Amino acid sequence: MKKNAVPNLNDFFSGHLIVNKARKILYCNNYICDLSDQSDKSLIDNPLSKFVTKASNIFIDSYVYPLLMHQSCAQEIQITWIGKNGETIPVVVNIKLGSEDISYWSLYVCENRDKLHSELLKANEKLEKQSQELFRLATTDPLTGLLNRRELQVQAQKVTHQAARNLSTFALLFIDIDFFKRVNDTYGHPAGDKVLICLANILTQERRVTDIVARMGGEEFALLLPNIDEENAYKLAERLRKKIEKQTIDHIKITVSIGLVVTRKNTQTNFDILLELADQALYESKEWGRNRTHVAQL
Ligand SMILES: Nc1nc2c(ncn2[C@@H]2O[C@H](COP(=O)(O)OP(=O)(O)OP(=O)(O)O)[C@@H](O)[C@H]2O)c(=O)[nH]1
């Protein structure tokens, strides 16, 4: 460009506007004319409000102008321009306030940026859903929807730390259906599955919100009960056992054997040891005739 040559704003690949104090357009370049599909004569002397949407006008009144008055400029503001046949076009504007409240606007269409933005948001939502689904698959049992053995161990770490902090005790119950093989053999595997699902529902309904229910595998379930002593844990185990005994699931009656272990105050016990003790107590219940609760001694 020659020295002292005056740049032509029509050569710019962005829109330029000059707006007066009354918010009328004093000048606009070709980019703005093309965007509005109007000649500069139809734009000049007209209020800016005619060329942006109602929502953008509210935004300009309530946010953009107060900002301009406060700091003499407004940057990277998105508003919606009204284009050909009333189509709405998202644009980003940068505005500078000059003397006598004349403002200088430069703007560009950000449709592609908007599209990219919404595509990124969609991709992000999809990834979040996928990761939630992966987490669900990794932590729950597909048949009953209960937590699986691995997740019970993760939750047990939290319960153990809480108990140590609050100087409280917690209980672990192992619940195993008696002679479940017979159920499968007599009524078929799908009926057996239904029994497992119903038992999972009973355990979920009966628990307190802080209690954790898990399926350990096969016909074995576990309940982790924070903040409970041996007497109350035993009462709860027996209440559950009797409730299950009374239920009929599609003409099928079942009983369960329960192994119970309760931690001691001020003594932190490794969760693997509790699992072993609950398992041994369950074995004792089976040995002593099933349909009973046996408490392990820690
Ligand atoms: N329907 C169904 N059956 C299962 C599932 N997982 C394990 N089983 C069955 O559970 C039964 C467990 O049998 P056993 O370990 O012999 O125990 P039991 O018959 O309950 O006898 P005790 O526990 O000694 O009272 C087997 O027949 C397994 O096939 C499952 O997801 N669905």
TrEMBL record:
Q: Which reaction does it catalyse?
A: 2 GTP = 3',3'-c-di-GMP + 2 diphosphate
Q: Which cofactor does it need?
A: Mg(2+)
Molecular function GO terms recorded = diguanylate cyclase activity
Q: Which Pfam families match?
A: GGDEF
**Entry-linked Gene3D superfamilies:** 3.30.70.270, PAS domain
Look at the named UniProt entry and state the broad enzyme category this protein falls under. transferase
InterPro entries for the chain: Diguanylate_Cyclase (IPR050469), GGDEF_dom (IPR000160), Nucleotide_cyclase (IPR029787), PAS (IPR000014), PAS-like_dom_sf (IPR035965), Rev_trsase/Diguanyl_cyclase (IPR043128)
- Domain annotation GGDEF: ranges: 168-298
- Its Enzyme Commission number(s) read 2.7.7.65
PROSITE patterns linked: GGDEF (PS50887)
PANTHER family attached here?
Answer: DIGUANYLATE CYCLASE DGCM-RELATED, REGULATORY COMPONENTS OF SENSORY TRANSDUCTION SYSTEM
Q: What is this protein called?
A: diguanylate cyclase
Tell me the organism.
Psychromonas ingrahamii (strain DSM 17664 / CCUG 51855 / 37)
